[in-house]
Fold this sequence. Notes:
The complex is a heterodimer. In chain A, a hairpin with a 6-residue loop joins β2 and β3 (41-44). Chain A contains no helices and 5 strands. By secondary structure, chain A is mostly beta strands. Chain A has one domain (4-79). Chain B is globular. The longest helix of chain B has 19 residues, at 311-329. Chain B is 29% helix and 16% strand. Chain B has a domain at 5-169 and 269-284: Peroxisomal Thiolase, Chain A, domain 1, CATH 3.40.47.10. The two termini of chain B are 40 Å apart. Chain B has helices at residues 50-65, 95-100, 116-122, 139-151, 199-212, 220-230, 237-241, 248-252, 281-284, 311-329, 349-356, 366-369, 387-391, 397-407, and strands at 5-7, 28-35, 74-78, 131-134, 157-164, 256-259, 261-262, 272-280, 292-300, 338-341, 421-428, 431-438. In chain B, α10 packs across α11. By secondary structure, chain B is an alpha/beta fold. The A-B interface holds A 8-21, 24-27, 29, 31, 33, 39-45, 52, 56, 67-70, 74 and B 170-175, 178-183, 189-197, 199, 202-204, 206-207, 210, 255-261, 304-308, 310-311.
Amino acid sequence: MSGRGKIYCYGVMYDSPVITLAVDQPFNVAVIQLEEDPGINMLSHLPGTPVDQVPVGANVQVEFETTPATGQKVPEWRVVG
Amino acid sequence: MPVETQMAPDSIYRSTEGLGVWEHKGKVAAVGIGISPTARRWDESTETSLGAWTILAIQNAIDDAGVSPDQVDGLVLTPETSTGSPWPTDKSIPEDFLKTYQSTDNPLDGIAQLSSEWILKNMPELTNIKFVMYAPVCMSNALVVAAQAVGDGLTNTCLVVRGWHNFGGRYYVGQGVTAGETISGPGKWSTMWGTVACYTTAMVFEAYCRKYGKNHDMMAPFVVNEKRNGLLLPEGYWAQHRPEPLTAEDYLSARWIAKPANLYDNDLPICVSAAFIFTTAERAKDMKQKPVYILNHARTLPASRGVVPTLDDWQDASDSTGRKLYEGAGIGPKDLSFENMYDGFTLFHQFHLEGLRFAGVQRGEALDFYQTDISIEGPNPVSPSGGNAGGGRTRFWLHVDSVQQLQGRAGARQITKKAEIGVSGAFMPDFSYSLIWSATPD
């Protein structure tokens, strides 16, 4: 996989059930369609994109963030070009 | 010898197009409804427990139909009862409940789930049950299964049952996988991003508005209409406990949950149980209530390959639901007197409505249609039950109302136009179980 995709649609979370994310509210959650197969999609917080200013249709590139709890790598997507 | 409980098999559903008219069209009827009282949360008294209220709902349905308990020979049940609040693992079960009811292997049976075994153990008057089937997730599923089972002759007089419990705490907030610092299992693809229950609907709604040039404000007439109808539903939570009208201004100023879904786009979890009695059209002639005939039923299963379904996924699926329902019933959109499709969450109701082409509404037109007269007095009654938004979270008010409308006993909610054929179904646009109901068998 190329690690590239497009933003399909998004929402803004104001009342997340996940306790550890409450301090970050409100935050974007976007649906990313993979370049190779738009039928497969993933979620992203879109790091670097201001809240509720999501450029739907924009190209994105995967990057991996390290989670504070376990150090595991988590896929996120950043708007490019 | 107890009757073995089966899971509903695939063969009992009508899931594909091209099946023709349903072989049991007009030969199965709903003849009784029983509803328990409602409450926001369980107060931990035995008499308001999930089990107690389910028994009460069953007794009410049997009385409503005018049958005796020993005439009931079938039970179709949705065993899940959760609204999103689990029983705390360190909390003991009230002693009085354990003394009052016979228990099963699961100590939470009758409190946080309902097994057929629990019901039959605690309702010894149901002496003639020969057919028992589980239909998971949704009352709509149970009604579909019961319709086919009666038509197939597997049961002649069948109870269809669904209960809901609601304990303390906020809906899913800080419970289960959302409580800790790590997430495993399927939630690592969705919950980990902090998604709330309505997020899928919110996102697909956002795509819908962008494609068709609509906006969230246009939902106000629908949500206000839902609450108005719900306050005319005496069985519902809001009518019983909080008879507060909702204005468009209330709706438009409500806080966001997952923008573009706000507080009133979500439903309120409650405690309540319901039961229906289905029987053959032949036997229904002799019963207390006017029979409501089932012209067809349909199931649609999700085909999405992603974490979130796309707009196309939901539109294709709900289009297929509409085609299946009409084909099997031998009717078209113009034959519907009203529609009672699911609304919990409000932002996906238009997918169901457009899939049915209700009142001739095409794709992308429903939010404009909401600006017209969609009231119970008007030419195109939309969701006369008030749905989950108007009555509390059950996924069964829609069916209760459909039957009552066609029996002419919907009271203050009775639609002004003649109620001849209606439709109700739940839950998601791409994962649904629906029925066409009629005042006459043909």
